[in-house]
Fold this protein.
Amino acid sequence: MSASGSRSRTSSEADRPAAEYHRFVVVLSGPSGAGKSSFVSDLLGRPLDLVYSVSATTRPRRPHEEEGRDYFFISRDEFRRRAAAGEFVEWAEVHGELYGTLRSQVDAALRAGKNVLLDIDVQGGRSVRTHYPDGVFIFVLPPSMESLEARLRKRGTDSEDRIHVRLQNARREMEMLGEYDYAVVNDDLAAAQKQVASIIVSESLRVARRAVRGAT
Ligand code: ADP
Ligand code: 5GP
């Protein structure tokens, strides 16, 4: 191959404006105990330009959780007031508590040119799809119902009653897998975390998301 062969840059390549990519929302759903929070912390440590959308909830704070980092913990009255004021992109009752995605969180991240990561239930996932049809919807599955139960017990954050409710809801949630784009089985955590990160990298490079800077 000569110096002027196919490896050299042509003038039209050199003149091409730099491309950037439209930002998008990434939704993680799956039964309680499937490992969604474990994915969130891993993903935020990777160079994926992701910002986590902190939800509001009426659920009591768990000992290791921080206000404003994991959730905004608010009363039912406050939740209802903010829902009526249109502050949520979506909200739902999950396992007997209210959870909602704050419009301010999602808008601020997208405006700052970041991708937004949401850890929300299947009802929320369906609703977000209607607002952000170009989002990426990932469902996290446990290897088995037995391992899901064992993980919920080992996590030690829920009473037996709450574990029971979460397991009952798990089957119903898994029936909505077909509405998602990707299914990741969380057996080996590190391997599954890599898979989720790869999905986001690939999705961010989709031709349909390319916006050519400087193009008229
Ligand atoms: P979720 O956010 O979906 O409710 P968590 O991320 O809290 O789930 O995970 C539930 C529990 O299972 C946690 O104690 C977590 O450390 C543990 N866990 C997550 N993934 C795995 C895995 N692949 N193998 C073993 N334990 C796991
Ligand atoms: P947890 O109480 O274990 O943190 O969360 C319980 C469930 O609520 C999980 O399925 C989680 O994804 C979901 N969830 C958390 N935040 C939101 C939200 O803003 N909206 C909806 N619809 N679900 C949420």
About this structure: The chain has a mean pLDDT of 91. Residues 189-204 form the longest helix (16 residues).
